[in-house]
Amino acid sequence: MKQNIYDNNDFFEQYKALRAQEHNYNNLLEKPNFFTLMPDVKDKVVLDIGCGMGDFAAICMERGAKHVTGIDISTNMIAMARSLYTDANLNFKQVPFEDFTVPAASIDLISSSLAFHYIADFSQLIEKISLALRMDGILLFSIQHPIVTASKAQTGWCLDEHKNLVHYAVDDYHSEGLRKLDWFVEGVEMYHHTLSTLVNTLIEHGLQIEKIIEPKPTEEAIKQLPKIQKELRRPSFLIVRARKV
Amino acid sequence: MKQNIYDNNDFFEQYKALRAQEHNYNNLLEKPNFFTLMPDVKDKVVLDIGCGMGDFAAICMERGAKHVTGIDISTNMIAMARSLYTDANLNFKQVPFEDFTVPAASIDLISSSLAFHYIADFSQLIEKISLALRMDGILLFSIQHPIVTASKAQTGWCLDEHKNLVHYAVDDYHSEGLRKLDWFVEGVEMYHHTLSTLVNTLIEHGLQIEKIIEPKPTEEAIKQLPKIQKELRRPSFLIVRARKV
């Protein structure tokens, strides 16, 4: 059974509230870095995996994409996306990532923002992506950093007696697979993969690494959200751009 | 002043004793993985950076290399290497990594085992390596893993009251640069670089990533050296193979 945490209503309401905040980790850390790696999408065909509320798909349309498909497992998300963005060349489909089907070599850009850590079989996903991409097409995705997903106990930050952060706990690095964590609700499921698994899986499927970003908060971001300063001490996200060769 | 810790006699004697043990981290973890990424060197020209006692250079000769140069900053190491291995096509030179000079596009394989973390300017080193490699030449190197080099305090493993390992401490990840640690003697200097810096520096200098290994101990290795089991919990090394394109 594929996890569909975004259709848990408690989770979804809290998630929407988080994303509605102007100064959150996505807006200050993940998004700006993600966009620095975005290729020109003018007249291109885009598939956005885990499209959520459709913001990225809509930006691709604004930038002149020929056609954009956003897929997400969550009916909540797809309903939101459809209500927010309407364009004949922008389609949203409620489908688990694992089950999307598109013609071979039909897509110029496959994007995915903070969704791939929900996927158990990373290799199978990348195989499908590689088949779907045109030659020279781009895969651009962000994912929870392996440093963050590693520990089975999800210990996270260790605190001293004054509740100051001492360091971040890494453990179980080579035990890839399911991790359960409490994020708004108990037992959200995600999957840990090592850095080498992530990189080598792309390469083995004909996707050449072009750049990796471990987002680092800017001084401006730290002014707006001081607690984001701790992102200098350990990376939360990994953003990867790769090219089908 | 370039650090030359291997010419500190206290350090060197202890280092030799460690490497003389049959079951050490190098023999059980780093070396076997390093060799899985080694290209065919028959009739090839090889440069080994940080050649130490010359073992890898000698193996390249055994495998039919046309010419091998080993360089190391340490006169102790170079003296050992010259006494152990003599072959007209095998040269050892005492020179800091930063100062090696070879004709452009003259080398087929540049190798380096656990030495690059001693180098302050990684980008300058990779620029020189890229110039030295022939088109399609290979850079194969191992380095301390960024998870291990990150913390300025070099806290390492956190222990419980029974001295059991609890987790590994990561901190200061985005503060790249000098780290001092006590390894045989006080204040051994090494340099921390993030994973993304390591990978992107290669790519920016025309070296395409072919594979990354974060070595994982085998069951056999754990039988021979039980304490190596903790390497399942956090990676010590990163091994990278890249091709000049």
UniProtKB/TrEMBL annotation, chains A, B:
Domain named Methyltransferase type: residues: 47-141
CDD domains: AdoMet_MTases
Highest taxon, organism lineage: Bacteria
The protein's name in its UniProt record: Class I SAM-dependent methyltransferase
Protein's UniProt keywords contain Transferase: yes
Pfam families: Methyltransf_11
E.C. numbers: 2.1.1.-
Enzyme class, UniProt record, top EC level: transferase
Organismal lineage: Bacteria, Bacillati, Bacillota, Bacilli, Bacillales
GO-annotated biological processes: methylation
InterPro entries tied to this protein: Methyltransf_11 (IPR013216), SAM-dependent_MTases_sf (IPR029063)
Keyword annotations: Methyltransferase, Transferase
Molecular function (Gene Ontology), one example: methyltransferase activity
